[in-house]
Design brief:
This protein has 202 residues and is of the alpha/beta class. The chain has a single domain, classed as Rossmann fold (3-Layer(aba) Sandwich), CATH 3.40.50. It is built from nine helices and five strands; from the N terminus they run E-H-E-H-H-H-H-E-E-H-H-H-E-H. It has helices at 14-21, 32-39, 45-54, 67-76, 78-106, 139-150, 154-162, 167-170, 184-201; strands at residues 2-8, 27-31, 110-114, 131-136, 176-179. Helix 1 packs across helix 9. The longest helix is centred in the middle third of the chain and has 29 residues, at 78-106.
Length: 202
């Protein structure tokens, strides 16, 4: 089984790409973000550390971690973002190892892990992946999509986009690159070509 990481900036079209990849026989898709959110569940060690660091203001009325409040906090404060990553990534890494073992036993040929920060996070274990695909779109396209998708102002969207490393730095680190700046069809054509090539290698 090949383990493939799918990295890319916010609002570049990663979800569209994994949906297309998942249609191919032998391909399974896992969202590292969802696994990360599971590690924040009420009562977990990560939950307790986050509340101790950031206080009750990041909680919903039910006492769960409020994604929006936490998101606003970490996007505006690099130290808070580093702290979050330092405690969440080890927990996610452990869970991904278990998930990979399950898929290997199931006979999955290609396990795709959508992990947005894979190429830029110092906490990501790049040796876990045989290949990395990077999804890139122009900054203006990202800002426009983010405004439409999340109802953000131009400034809010720009801040989120610019909190990430520029594509030019990350493209050389990837094995494959999908340019999702243009039409959906062009993005999907590139996706199908890359994943067929990977399945042939698997």
């Amino acid at each position: 089984m090949l383990i493939v990481g799918l990295a890319g900036g916010i609002a570049t079209g990663k979800s569209l790409i994994v949906q297309e990849a998942a249609k191919l026989p032998g391909v399974a898709v896992v969202d590292a973000d969802k696994i990360a959110w599971e590690t924040y569940a009420k009562g977990t060690e990560v939950y307790q550390k986050l509340v101790a660091r950031f206080g009750q203001s990041i909680l919903t009325s039910e006492g769960a971690i409020d994604r929006k409040k936490l998101g606003a906090l970490i996007f505006s404060d690099p130290q808070a973002r580093d702290y979050l990553n330092s405690i969440v990534h080890p927990a996610v890494r452990q869970k991904l190892t278990e998930v990979a073992q399950e898929h290997r036993a199931r006979g999955t040929k290609l396990l795709v892990i959508e992990a947005a920060l894979l190429l830029e996070s110092p906490y990501a274990n790049k040796n876990f992946f045989q290949y990395v695909i990077f999804v890139h779109a122009s900054r203006e396209a990202q800002i426009e999509r983010l405004m439409k998708r999340n109802g953000l102002s131009y400034e809010e969207a720009r801040t989120r986009v610019e909190a990430r490393a520029p594509s030019e730095q990350l493209i050389p680190l990837a094995d494959f690159v999908i340019d999702a700046s243009e039409t959906i069809e062009k993005t999907l054509d590139q996706t199908r070509e890359i994943f067929r090539s990977l399945l042939a290698r698997a």
